Amino acid sequence: MRGQEWGGHNELSGVVHGPSVQAAVVHGDVHIRTGETAEQQLPWQLPPAVRLTDRTAEVERLERHRTLAAQRAHPALATVSGLGGVGKTALALAWLHGLRRDFPGGQLYADLCAQAPTGPVDPAHVLGSFLRGLGVPPQQVPEGVADRSALYRSLTADRRIVVLLDDAATAAQVRPLLPGGSNVTLVTSRRRMSGLALEGGYQVHLEPLAPEAAVELLAATLADDRVATQPDDARALVGLCAGLPLAVRVAGARLAARPQRRITTMVRALTAEHGRLDALAIDGDHGVRAALDLSYQGLPAEAARLYRLLGVHPGTEFGGGVAGAVLGAVGAGIPTGSGADEGPDPGELLDVLHDANLLIDIGEDRYRFHDLVRLHAMGKAAEDESAAERAAVFRRIADHYLATATRAERAIDPRHPLRERSYGPGPVVTEDFGDGTRAALDWLERELPNLMAVIRRARRTGERDISWQLADALGPFFLRRKHYDAWHASHAEGLAAARELGDGPAECRMLTSGGQGELGRGDNARALEMFEEAARLFADAGDELGYARTSNYRGLAHQRAGQLDEAAELFEWAAVELPRCGDLRAGGLARLNAADVEFARGRLPRAAEGAAEARTTLLAVDDSYNAARAATLLGRIRLGDGRPDEAERWLSGALAVLREVAAHYETARALDALGEVAELRGQRELAQGHYREALDLYVGVNRPGPAEGVRERLRRLDEGGATSTDEGGDASGSGDHGSGDRG
User: Could you tell me how far CA 478 lies from the centroid of its own chain?
Assistant: First the structure.
């Protein structure tokens, strides 16, 4: 879908509110069909609930606040504060999961990462995630916090949803994330969020567990009779844990793994650990830190090493493959012949850490640390591993993501010209995400926060080759899934890294790929600036092929800006030069782009000649998708010069190919034209069917210009009139174009 994704008109005249909101302005009998049920489109993002001990009073307070807010038709906003490890998230999840029946519109969740080493999460990033979870296509997510927040409030105004904002840093971080309507939002933070009082925030401060409740939690963790037979030692142990549930669970997990050990042994060890912490003058969270230190000391050597090395990981969650990468171990997808030595099974070591309550299993072979545990693991890595070893571990993590992202890149776009990747000394562990384009896209979607974290850290730590190469590998994913913020940020980092390396070809790749992201964001001027800079670099280097490819990119920027003369000149030149430089496919795409401009100008014979030539070339290089795009243009041309039978043959053939590859915008264009053919023949119901399907697709891919044209034709048909064929085509609906290469 390279051509489809790179071109096409994408200018918006205001904030787009997603398919459901756009549908509100449709006149006539138009039905929005997405192919998914309403239940499938609802976000259910809350993590699983965990055991909750002795928080009945707090749950009742939260429920009273919610009930009172509902009686007043107000939103319910509450904050839960307290020490790290006191059980804030456990309380939040237990309460909110219980509200699902009353709030069937979905559950939104975000970890705001107040304690993360990279700093709190930007609200704009969270809003982008929320909007996608609410069904807004990525290409319709607006720029900036203000516009995103406005759209978010609009979409949640009439829903019944709950929102959990976990580990917030400040009230300012939270405010843009408050939904509209009479919904429920719960914020957890180590700080008391008094700044949310103006928004009606109700504060619950969570104290550590009372001794009896902490002993109950310890007994549930041990699941034997030791608490009953050693009650005094049990009370002493939970006292040393300061009543913090996390500390009790960690200490209890260690005892549970040693069923013959008496509780008093753990009491003595934890007492000594407290003394060490006090001597180091570490403030706060003594119970958790002491329990973590003790649990760490009791781990098998390989599990302890994995624990501290996972502290080097720059993200907040990770898959099982990362464990193999940090250990350099065979077993997590390392290719045969990688040179890795046989070692302990990473999966078994992850189970050890999970059983010790040091890792949270979030399903699908994915894990995360509690924020305090992550900080503890980072500290142990700094204490017990040299700087050189920590750097080597980060390189293995980065190589893992780069190698797997590159494999995904190939699955998404086998034709993408791939520059050879550079890896560290290895071994390089790749992850098996399955087969096919969808599996590759889904893996990249899931790992995108980690990939972005690696791109940023790699440049900061001097691994600049990783930074630009990983941004490069994400290009086909961005073209499909339209994460424009990440596209912009990753290529800005990658471009800076390439410049710092003095790598001209890498710089050109970042400029051309990043420029296409700017086109998608609607910043045509910046895109053209980037393409022209790449052209200068290619010219200075004597790279004729690279320079010719940028002519196609520059043509797209001019076409988007409505500068058809400039676009036509660039496309025509590229159509001649690209084949001369050895790139027949890119030349065929340039010829197709030029033909589309001729069609927009109303020069139908020249447009038909160019489209036919492009189709022949594209078929010769086995590019059936772009050949189908050329056939669509030929069908529209034949419709324009009054030959509906010939138009139908071209369009029907193109439609079969375009449906197969799920090219939604190009499918819509073919259906739109087939609707006009049916209209000319007086086939009213057939025309309406084609138009309605085309409208659904146009709305789904955010093409407001063509969508409005279809709405107008449907209105006229509903009123019993007829529409006339536009002889000259519609420049605003011009096709999705691209050179097929990213420089």
Answer: 10
Helix (H) or strand (E) holding 202: strand 202-205
C-alpha pair distances (Å), 160 with each of 77, 128, 540: 14, 20, 59
Q: What are the tokens at 168? A: 């917030």
**In the structure encoding, which two tokens stand for residue 132, read together?**
């996608």
How far apart, in whole angstroms, are the C-alpha atoms of residue 514 and residue 510? 5
pLDDT value, residue 329: 63
Q: What is the DSSP letter of 417?
A: -
Q: Which two tokens stand for residue 304?
A: 């302890």
Amino acid identity for residue 48 in this structure:
P
Three-state DSSP at 579 gives helix
Residue 737 has pLDDT above 60, yes or no: no
Residue 699, H or E segment: helix 684-700
- Cα→Cα distances 312→211, 353, 366, 398, 424, Å: 36, 16, 17, 11, 16
Per-residue model confidence as pLDDT tens digits over 340-365: 445 688 999 999 999 888 898 888 88
Cα gap 662→670, rounded to integer Å: 13
Q: Could you tell me if 394 and 312 are in contact, meaning their C-beta atoms sit under 8 angstroms apart?
A: yes
Calculate the alpha carbon distances from 395 to 204, 228, 325, 384, 472 in Å. Answer: 43, 49, 9, 18, 18
594-632 tens-digit pLDDT: 999 999 999 999 999 999 999 999 999 988 889 999 999
Contacts of 237 (CB under 8 A, 6+ apart): 218, 251, 263, 266, 267, 270
Which residues are within 8 A (CB) of 642 and not within 5 positions of it... i.e. 6 or more apart? none
Instruction: Tell me the C-alpha distance between 284 and 595, whole Å.
Output: 69
| Distance from C-alpha of 653 to C-alpha of 651, rounded to nearest angstrom | 5
Q: How many CB atoms within 10 Å of residue 404?
A: 26
Locate 94 and state its tokens: 């237990």
- Within 13 A of 644's CA, how many CA atoms are on the CB side? 13
In the three-class reduction of DSSP (H, G, I as helix; E, B as strand; rest coil), residue 368 is classed as strand
Q: How confident is the model at residue 27 (pLDDT cuts 50, 70, 90)?
A: very low
User: pLDDT class for 561, splitting at 50, 70, 90?
Assistant: very high
* pTM listed for this prediction: 0.76
Lowest mean pLDDT among 433-437, 612-616, 662-666: 662-666
> Chain centroid to CA 81: how far?
29
The predicted structure's pLDDT at residue 451: 97
